[in-house]
Amino acid sequence: MSEAVISLRNVSKSFGSVHANENVSMDIYKGEILSLLGENGSGKTTLMNMLSGIYYPDHGEIKVNGKVVNIRDPKDAFDCGIGMVHQHFKLVDVFSAAENVVIGIKREHGLDLRGVSNDIRKICDKYGFVMDPAKKVYDMSVSEKQTLEIIKVIYRGADILILDEPTAVLTPQETEKLFDVIRNMKKDGKTVIIITHKLHEVLSISDRVAILRKGEYVDSIETRDATEERLTEMMVGEKVELNIERPEIKEKKIRLRVSHLSCYNSDGLKVLEDVSFDAYGGEILGVAGVSGNGQKELLESVAGLQNSMPGASIKYYSPDDDKEYELIGLTPRKIRQLGVHLSFVPEDRLGMGLVGSMGMSDNMMLKDYNEGRSIFTDKKKPRELAEQILNDLNVVTPGLSTPVRRLSGGNVQKVLVGREISASPAVLMTAYAVRGLDINTSYTIYRLLNEQKKAGVAVIYVGEDLDVLMELCDRILVLCSGRVNGILDGRSAKKEEIGRLMTLVSAGKEKR
Amino acid sequence: MQGFISLFQAAVFFGTVIMFGCIGEIITEKAGNLNLGVPGIMYLGGISSLAAVFIYEGSTDTPSSAVCVLLALLASFAGASFGGLIYAFLTITLRANQNVTGLALSIFGSGVANFFGGSLNTLAGRFEQISVPVTSAAFRQNIAPLANMGIIGKLFFSYGFMVYLAVILAIVTQLFMQHTMTGLNLRTVGENPQAADAAGINVTAHKYLAICIGAGICGFGGVYYVMDYIKGTWANDGSIEKLGWLSVALVIFATWKAKNAIWGAYLFGVLYWMYLYIPGLTRASQEIFKMLPYVVTIVVLVFTSLTNSREKQPPAALGQSYFREER
Questions:
Q1: Which residues in A lie closer than 8 A to residue B196 (C-beta atoms)?
Q2: How does strand A475-480 pair with strand A313-317?
Q3: Rounded to two decimals, what is the model's pTM?
Q4: Which of A36, A216, A344, B85 is the most buried (most CB within 10 A)?
């Protein structure tokens, strides 16, 4: 085995009373692709942030190429040849790609954007990226932004690249492209550390897997010796059943009938076109599609947050009085009261569902703001609810009043989903409910959704992972460019079939 | 014609004061700090220069114009930067709320300046009105041969050197922001301090420097007001304050670009003084005209919001304090 480029010895870091990392000792070898695996809040990002100079370890020692180094800020990290692509991109929206690449670098020729652009093109050719140096970041897609971040790090001469959950926001095709680039880097002699939750990705890309659990280093194994079950066990510390349950419910009642729904977005582009489907109580309806193909608008239309074109109809069949209601034209509040609940998990989790600076209990109260009779708030019920969610879903938080933005992504997610479910809806819509969550938490969420299904709720599950959709959902609706390309049976659907429908843009249009 | 010339000249005098304030505030805001203390800082700049040259002119029988000018500029820069330093320490190091700190600085600056201004008036003795004739004359010295060239001379060359200094500073600031590495780094700090930090830029140092230099330039507005606009004396009437707020409005009007501050400042000057040149206005309707610069700012805000252009927005992290280890 080649020599260690980075050696960590007894590295610890805590935030207040929370120990993010405790006595982590591990080695990273030259020229390898190392996966760093662990549940949410197991301290992967914190550990890597200490290598990239964002955090400074409380104690412990970091050696780079055999020399003890003191990484006080990102500049020191660059000097050691370490570059990190953060999960939340650190780009300036109003700058061009070239400007973003060059910021913070001392250059002999001053701000010479033409020279920088040429350098960017060279890097692109070498590793197989596509990037226009003059393009502004606000015009870029998520995957382009990520490409830019990687170019930025390579431009600074990094030999050790850290990628924090790079595939969380990418489509399968984009992920493949990224992996090709990573393999090219390895060929070039660079060391790559990749943080990810997706086990099949770990197995396909990495040479070795290192596992963290609750801030401590567990062990590392060669990828060729690893299996999904083995990795999960090491990560969680106990055996986890990796099968998703799919109970068959006999009695299905229609809850929602959407017909001829069309929507335009704020730029005047058609995002939904003539969408029609039914959703039944006691089943999970999966919605598959490359993200940004109308999923968000579809759910928001049902929740009353989108304006639709005339001619559309969204019928809701209430379980309480067996009456049917037309949802189009109703206010979001009225729709909620009828029992249609939307739990939307956008890329920015705190954007739409929770208030970041408020604690768990206060966040519980948000949806019932108009219920109280007295001028004083009743804090008791929300506190009880918060406690219940805390216990049921194992939310890790210092306390109920700790601002939720201080919690890790997975825990924020649990709070949000827990609250939506607690309102005992008749239709529960979730979008990307497990995005960025680790295995254990994801399975908790699947279990919760199944419980809702058994209780007769119509669950609409917008997901990204086709394997999960095929295991969890009774029916799968495939969206592409705002059209329904097909509704398949979850039990018999083939992955290839779904994948084909997801990308069937032109063919679908020609048919009609 | 005569009316047009005098309106133009009045606009230039007025515009120069707020142009300095605006350039300084643009530099500050580009670093992500909204300093609402501009009026206070202008006061500090004005009183520091006045006090320094008053002492100097009193200490010698033959004060030199060059020394007077230099002393006035240095003193004002020092005084105003000190105000900026207070603001920087509170908002960057202690991470106090920027709006509150800025407003407090406005009140503090005007209080300090008017206190010492009153004291200087008392010191000045029998006339009860301070004057620094040598300095003021040096500041008001126009470009003599050119200024006599008829209308052109009156319109463009009849002013003291500060008028031209302001324009040059605006151009230099524009070039600095757009075409230098340091300018790019500074803008990064204001747009996305996390990105700046991750790129190895020292966020704190950039902010401190930008705020102190920005405040120093705002202070020049105070000097120009004291030495040229009101001819080397002190007035406790709060008119610097008014001009300070207009500088802040001008930053928005100029959409955070120093080059726009040049014509914007003069336009504000024209709008502000127009009421004197429109016949038949009563006292009440005059006041409506004095509002025009603010109305124009609001209109600009409405339009920039409507066009939704990303290039015309304030720095994205404006008003937020930055702490690296925040989760």
A1: 103-104
A2: unpaired
A3: 0.77
A4: A36
